[in-house]
Amino acid sequence: MRIPMVDLAGQYRDLKAQIEPAMAATLNAAQYILGPNVQAFEAEAAKYLGVKHAITCANGTDALHLALLAAGIGPGDEVITTPFTFIATAEAIAYVGAKAVFVDIDPQTLNIDVAQVAQAVTPKTKALLPVHLFGQPANIQPLLDLAQKHGLKLIEDCAQSFGAHVGGRQTGSMGDVGAFSFFPSKNLGCYGDGGMVTTQSDAMAETLRMLRNHGSKVRYYHDIIGYNSRLDELQAVVLRAKLPHIDHYNQQRRRVAHRYSAGLTGLGIQTPHEDGVGLHVYHQYTMLTDRREVIQKALADQQIASAIYYPVPLHQQKVFADMAAGQSFPVTESVAARCLSLPIYPELSDAAVDEVCGVIRQALQA
Ligand SMILES: *Cc1c(COP(=O)(O)O)cnc(C)c1O
């Protein structure tokens, strides 16, 4: 592809002079697991996010899993979430033996429709799990109010929203616990798998630190059944090099997004909607169109990537066929049939954005 969805090599070239010596130093120091870079990154990330504790782990899926465990969610509990997200959100709920209860999405923001969440609360509901999808914060205040009213935990899926905030309150700092992914293509990504859980609670932080390391506080003394889920030192080196640039990266994503939206007006495309409450950091630029195939083909003909996030809503996935039998979420289904994501990354040039818009315009006007 001439214009890929993401250009990780380009970002690496910009940071090479910083990352390679730090990697070499780490290789020589030979403390590869839970060493000084992990500790430093956790402190730096916590400071940036405005949380008391940031506990890194092996990936974003584990971050959700550990977050649910630390929040005390277990068998028989119901967790309300969105059907329009990556599978990991609901997988994590299944891992702890709880049931994912889906609620349809808002047709503008594509985040969970908070007006419908209240109706889904039952005596079994133990937590709300909103996703800050594509980098736009979910409508968090009504969810916080609802959680407080019913004594529910609020767990934020921040896998796509590092640096997004609501009036200065970072995603991952507003609920009881936040789960992040550092998969390479995320807004803040490392060079392999990585994840992190955030919380303001000392007690949950202590549990999380044990959960990620075999249930142990003191080496070879195990208090609970834990997991092997740690971020390694080399990934922490990468994340420490990138964290100081995250606001700039997100600003550049917003530049690209706004240029796309300006360039795609008048074509009958629903461009991403910013709700004016939270800062959208555009992990993805996802538009809605009735002519998705025409656009995808025209882009592919010009060696321009595009992708469908997500083609099959979670309630229609085979794995949830029993659990979600007979359920239907009309907005989600309509969005899944019409969504198309365009290339977006901080280094994407204005000229490239203009070219993508030109190809789409030509395809639709042909
Ligand atoms: C990427 C992602 C995850 C999982 O993160 P991994 O690091 O890939 O395990 C969870 N939720 C959402 C919304 C994601 O986009």
Task: Summarize this structure briefly.
The chain is an alpha/beta fold and 366 residues long. It has 12 helices and 13 strands.
- What spatial form do the alpha-carbon principal axes imply? globular
Specify the structural class. alpha/beta
Which percent range fits the helix content? 25-40%
Strand order of the largest sheet: 1-9-8-5-4-2-3
Q: How far is the N terminus from the C terminus?
A: 23 Å
Total DSSP helices = 12
What's the helix-strand series? HHEHEHEHEHEEEEEHEEHHEHHEH
Modified residues (N6-(pyridoxal phosphate)lysine): 186
Family: Belongs to the DegT/DnrJ/EryC1 family.
Pfam families: DegT_DnrJ_EryC1
InterPro entries: DegT/StrS_aminotransferase (IPR000653), PyrdxlP-dep_Trfase (IPR015424), PyrdxlP-dep_Trfase_major (IPR015421), PyrdxlP-dep_Trfase_small (IPR015422)
Description:
The protein has 366 residues and is α/β, with parallel strands linked by helices. Helices cover 40% and strands 14% of the residues. The chain contains twelve helices and 13 strands. The chain has helices at 8-29, 36-49, 60-70, 88-95, 114-120, 140-150, 202-211, 233-242, 246-263, 292-301, 330-338, 350-365; strands at residues 53-57, 78-81, 99-102, 125-129, 153-157, 165-166, 169-170, 177-181, 195-199, 216-218, 221-222, 285-288, 339-342. The strands form four sheets. Strands 1-9-8-5-4-2-3 form a seven-stranded mixed sheet, with helices on both faces. A two-stranded antiparallel ribbon has the order 6-7. It has a two-stranded antiparallel ribbon with strand order 10-11. Strand 4, helix 6 and strand 5 form a beta-alpha-beta unit. Helix 3 (60-70) crosses helix 4 and helix 10 packs across helix 12. The protein is globular. The protein starts with 7 loop residues before the first helix and ends with a helix. The model has no long low-confidence stretch (mean pLDDT 97). The chain binds pyridoxal-5'-phosphate (PLP). Pyridoxal-5'-phosphate (PLP) binds next to helix 3 and helix 4. The modification N6-(pyridoxal phosphate)lysine is found at residue 186. The active site is at 186 (proton acceptor).
